[in-house]
Amino acid sequence: MSRDLAIDLGTANILVYARGEGIVLNEPSVIALNTRSGEVLSIGHEAWKMIGRTPAHIVAVRPLRQGAITDFDITERMIRRVLHQVGVSRFNRPKTIICVPSAITAVEQRAVREAARRAGAAEAHLIEQPRAAAIGAGLPIDQPIGNMVVDVGGGTTETALISLGGVVALEAVRVGGFDLDAAIQTAVRRTHGIAVGEQTAEQIKLAIGSAWPTEEEWVADVRGRELMSGLPRTVTLTATEVREAIDEPLTTMVDSVVSCLGAAPPELAQDLIIHGIHLVGGGGLLTGMATRLSDATKVSVQLVDQPLESVVLGAGQCIESFDEVRDMFMTSRGRH
User: β-pairing, 219-226 with 194-195?
Assistant: First the structure.
């Protein structure tokens, strides 16, 4: 008998929840390919280590960018390998619920469903990531109460106000954690004349990045390639430099949250003053992110207990009672 699966097809990470077992896979959404033979060399953590470190005929890529599939064939192959890793075969075809950004188009929705079916799923239903995150965070979304979730992912930032199981107000921008990394790369290149890779920029963000001034301003030594000479060089970055570098994409994220609040009905907006806003996603772990959002919205913002897993855990709850919750999926758009 096949296991029903919930899949969080994120820009940064792909997580799989198996019915009755919990989370069985958590890997970066990266696939390494041999362009000469077309062979898939690895996916997940092994492929992530290859980014920027491969010969010309081997590429390590993220097939999803800004919450959208950039390469249908590579995405299908990645999903196929993921399903194979969790025990799916031609004789064992599960029903799946796939978490997708609410900003994707109808064409992109069909692409995700088709990729999942061709990869081995018997059925593929879609659920919006903010709604799944709210379920995973344990919010009472079936009650006539305003529940606001801000999901800061690798490629998108989505803010949803949910009441009685439905999305009342929604604001999504295709700006996320990877845009912060890119902003750091640009700033280091412009200010210090040093080229750094994607992984180095992410490490800088994690080490000294912040969305709000902190009591202790850290510094970090950064190694990269000097643009003028081409030689390796080390420079020192301060937390203030990094915060200024990522301010523009952060402002876009914050503005989207404020915009969603502006579209909220008065009664539900009143609920948010009491219950606050819930922050999920890897981007929510950025130091001071909750403080910056709270300052901009004048509403308390709290990071949920499991920000990275809340989306797939919410979809997993739907999987556990699959037959009873079909109406929670994305109406006719989520059905095949």
Answer: antiparallel
Cβ pair 208, 238 in contact under 8 A: yes
Domains and CATH numbers, the chain: 5-128+310-334 (3.30.420.40), 138-304 (3.30.420.40)
**109-156 tens-digit pLDDT:** 888 888 888 888 888 999 989 999 999 999 999 999 999 999 999 989
Among the ranges given (67-76, 187-196, 236-245), the one the predictor scored with the smallest mean pLDDT: 67-76
State pLDDT tens for residues 162-205: 999 889 999 999 999 999 999 999 999 999 999 999 999 999 99
Q: How far apart are CA 278 and CA 307, in angstroms?
A: 10
Q: How confident is the model at residue 81 (pLDDT cuts 50, 70, 90)?
A: confident
Per-residue burial over 153-177, b if 16 or more Cβ lie within 10 Å, else e, is bbbbbbbbbbbeeebbbbbbbbbbb
pLDDT score of 222 more than 50: yes
The one-letter amino acid code at 193 reads: G
**Residue with structure tokens 């993921």?**
82
HEC secondary structure over the chain: CCCCEEEEECCCEEEEEECCCEEEEEEECCEEEECCCCCEEEECHHHHCCCCCCCCCEEEECCEECCEECCHHHHHHHHHHHHHHCCCECCECCEEEEEECCCCCHHHHHHHHHHHHHHCCCEEEEEEHHHHHHHHCCCCCCCCCCEEEEEECCCCEEEEEEECCEEEEEEEECCCHHHHHHHHHHHHHHHHCEECCHHHHHHHHHHHCECCCCCCCCEEEEEEEECCCCCEEEEEEEHHHHHHHCHHHHHHHHHHHHHHHHCCCHHHHHHHHHHCEEEECHHHHCECHHHHHHHHHCCCEEECCCCCCHHHHHHHHHHHCHHHCHHHCCHHHHCC
Which is nearest to 128 in space by CA: 284, 334, 336, 335? 334
CB 38 within 8 A of CB 128: no
Residue 336 pLDDT: 40
